[in-house]
Automatic annotation (TrEMBL):
InterPro entries according to UniProt: 5peptide_repeat, DUF5758, Pentapeptide-BTB/POZ_domain
Protein's UniProt name: Pentapeptide repeat-containing protein
Lineage of source species: Bacteria, Bacillati, Bacillota, Clostridia, Eubacteriales
Amino acid sequence: MDLKKILDEHLLWLNGEGGSRADLRNADLSNADLFGANLRGANLFGANLRDADLRNADLSNANLSNANLFGANLRGANLSNANLFGANLRGANLRGANLFGANLRGANLRGADLFGANLRNADLSNADLFGANLRNADLSNADLFGANLRGANLRGADLFGANLRDANLSNANLREASIDQMMWNIYTVFYPLQCPESGSYIGYKKASGLVVELEIPADARRSSATSRKCRASKAKVLSITDINGNPAGGQVKSNYDPNFVYAIGETVEVTDFDDNRWNECSTGIHHFITRAEAVIYE
């Protein structure tokens, strides 16, 4: 196969100067050097592109359905509106790639690096994104119905308007992610809240090396993100003890704000409580449900 000739003919076809569309169906292009190649609109159905170098390549509107792109380097590639239905992109490098409107239904993206990728309006329904790096990726209005996002890194990702119905987000990192108007249903697997969703409950926090026992009232706003740590908008201080449970005075200062004091019998409140549960380290009274967790917390 004369790959250079095929690419030259394809370029002529794209420019309306004769030539012919690249037909690389089921072609063996493993380890191929296609850096910066123009394969816009090419037919690569079922092609073997394992470990190929496709950095900065133009694959927009290309047919890559059922293609093998395992470990391929697609950093900065243009895959907008490409057909990647059922493609194997496991472990592929797609950092900064443009996948706007791409068809990735049922694609295998396990462990793929999609840091900063543009997946806006992409169809990722039933795609496997287990352990994928989607940090700072644009997934706005993407269809992730039934997608497997277990253990995926979605920190700072834009999920505005994304469809996550029936998706599995267990152990995913959603810190600083934009989840405004994200669509989900009862079958979407999230991290369950670590604190009771309603009613009052007892919590414990560490402050200046001491353990503060808190009563979080029924009307307090509360949340938890991806760990056992919870946040609440207000709490009543019940006791202050040392690590061994011995009384340790009537008040103690917060580790982060010396002007925020926990005093036995008093109710403390955070007026600027952050309702975005995925901002784990944001404003609120941080605490645990068990005393043991507060004791070991550093």
